[in-house]
Design a protein that fits this description.
By secondary structure, the chain is an all-alpha fold. The chain contains 11 helices and 2 strands. It has 2 domains: about 120 residues, Cytochrome Bc1 Complex, Chain D, domain 2; about 80 residues, Cytochrome c-like domain (Cytochrome Bc1 Complex, Chain D, domain 2, Orthogonal Bundle).
Amino acid sequence: MRRLRSKIAAVLALAAVALTAACASNAPAATEQAARLPAGQLGATIKLGHDIIEDPHKYLPQNVVSDMSCSACHIAAGTVKRGGSFVGTYARFPQWNKRAKRVIMLQDRLAECFLYSMNGTPPAYNSKAMIAMAAYIAFLSRNVPTGAAAAKDDRFIVPLPNASPNIKRGGDLYAQKCAACHQANGAGVHGSFPPLWGPTSFNTGAGMAHIDRMTGFVRFNMPQNAAGTLSLEDAYDISAWVLTHPRPSFDKTRIIAPSPQPASYF
């Protein structure tokens, strides 16, 4: 009996090792690299940036109005290809921004996410939170040459079908493929699945409020438990149906003022 128990224990141990290895092999490379953060305050700041991106409501409740997290559009804190990856993003700033009609820095781009997707207010550019998020994205982007364009297989925006979307079909597909997570009323589940419309969703200025962006994102990343199983036409119709629903309007007239700091801060 003792020998049998020993054999069972050995088998279970081997199974645990195999499972751990399988999980590790499926984890995004950038997530694995996070285990090798720099020591000291720099590493702590990079980790804080990751944690804010995963759960901005916890760290910046005063800055977030919608029930969204950064990871809703940047899967696994921006480490998944065609899932809003941050890898290489830092190397592409400064850049010309068509919407702002000016050259922007990474902090400007992060501020956009708070204004549009979060329907809130960006943290000050010199704040601990903003610096931490920029540090995290810089960490993911190390070894990427400055100015390097995103790889084609890392972008989720794709050319849309020539035909108009079939909105009714999109509603039927949403009920079959999406409602279990995002709910029939689009409200999502707090902390797990983001709302796709309604008062707690992203506003009309967000990237996902554009059908080309939502279609590509849905095509490559949804449903969460079967990513990539939807055709381009499926994703197109679902996105069109989702975007027929109301959401908060972006207020262009708001005054956004950074918090002042004494000269000694710098």
